[in-house]
Structure to design on (349 residues):
């Protein structure tokens, strides 16, 4: 194996260049993974476009990418659960294991988490990465490495569905049909929810939602989403609403269409970080609000759902790019959202 690897580094706003770095050596508890696929996440695009998300500020050179999968090519001396040649999906957050949140099992809330592509931590737009073996989940034969890379966003969707206590017999709505909206819909279906409406402004995304099994879709550019949902539910409203668009309008619409006593799950981040909401109406309906920050304890169940055919992960992918074309991949994914729903980058050839 050569001792150098190709790495795509963000050198400035909207600019990615290639460099060479040493291939990392796995520690005793790590494995070295040859990265085969990496998804482009909305956070990657936001860092690429603006250089920051809230208090997380990119200081170039910086490596994007956190949705990854590949093949184990070396193992540390303490690793027993994986071997060379195993294909794995990488859970990107390394937590401290000691804080109150880690001890309680809600490790996604660890304040000291080290997460791929969250400044100052580099991501995995690179040919190799060393990662803790306990955060590398073996893929069964029926799941390929493209699907393995998409386990990360699927985990967010499952966490959203689980936060809303999704179950059979519910009627649900998902606001936003981007990648996270679509995987939330897929997770709802896998958990037994059979009636799911999806709302978006872009028809191609709604078409993809229908293709993946939405009961009905609503183009909010053409129809009043609240009136349509009330009509579709014969005036009853929704048992569970998942908001992935991160807009004040759609969050207010969640409250409007919710049944009394129902649940709203907030997933999307608003650009301003603040919203004005009809709280009196929410109180009158005794609504439960819950939210999602990444995920916890979900990779194994998400992988199993894909392996068992309950979820068509490849169905959300609209564009695949070679690693050499990462600059184009980022630019197109940013400016052509009317046509691109989800892009993946094939790192290994």
């Amino acid at each position: 194996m050569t001792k150098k690897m190709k790495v795509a580094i963000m050198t400035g706003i909207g600019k990615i260049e290639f460099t060479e770095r040493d291939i990392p050596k796995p520690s005793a508890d790590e494995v070295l993974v040859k990265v085969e696929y990496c998804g482009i996440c909305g956070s990657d695009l936001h860092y690429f476009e603006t250089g920051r998300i809230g208090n997380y500020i990119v200081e170039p050179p910086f490596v994007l990418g956190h949705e990854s999968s590949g093949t184990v090519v070396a193992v540390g001396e303490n690793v027993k659960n994986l071997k060379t040649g195993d294909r794995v999906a990488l859970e990107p957050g390394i937590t401290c294991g000691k804080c109150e949140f880690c001890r309680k099992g809600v490790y996604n809330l660890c304040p000291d988490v080290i997460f791929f592509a969250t400044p100052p931590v580099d991501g995995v737009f690179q040919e190799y990465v060393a990662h803790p073996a306990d955060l590398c989940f073996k893929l069964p034969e029926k799941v390929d490495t493209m699907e393995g890379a998409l386990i990360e966003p699927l985990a967010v969707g499952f966490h959203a569905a689980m936060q809303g206590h999704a179950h059979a017999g519910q009627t649900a709505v998902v606001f936003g049909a981007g990648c996270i909206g679509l995987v939330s819909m897929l997770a709802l279906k896998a958990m037994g929810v059979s009636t799911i409406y999806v709302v978006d402004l872009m028809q191609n995304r709604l078409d993809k939602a229908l293709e993946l099994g939405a009961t009905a879709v609503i183009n909010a550019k053409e129809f009043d989403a609240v009136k349509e949902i009330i009509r579709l539910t014969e005036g009853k409203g929704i048992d569970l609403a998942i908001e992935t668009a991160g807009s004040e309008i759609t969050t207010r619409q969640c409250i409007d269409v919710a049944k009394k006593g129902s649940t709203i799950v907030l997933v999307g981040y608003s650009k301003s970080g603040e919203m004005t909401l009809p709280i009196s109406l929410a109180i009158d309906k005794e609504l439960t609000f819950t939210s999602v920050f990444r995920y916890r304890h979900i990779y194994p169940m998400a992988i199993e759902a894909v392996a068992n055919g309950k979820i068509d992960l490849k169905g959300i992918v609209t564009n695949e790019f070679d690693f050499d074309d990462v600059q184009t991949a980022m630019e197109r994914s940013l400016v052509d959202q009317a046509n691109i729903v989800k892009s993946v980058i094939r790192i290994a050839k």
User: Anything to note?
Assistant: The two ends are 15 Å apart (CA to CA). The longest helix spans residues 151-163.
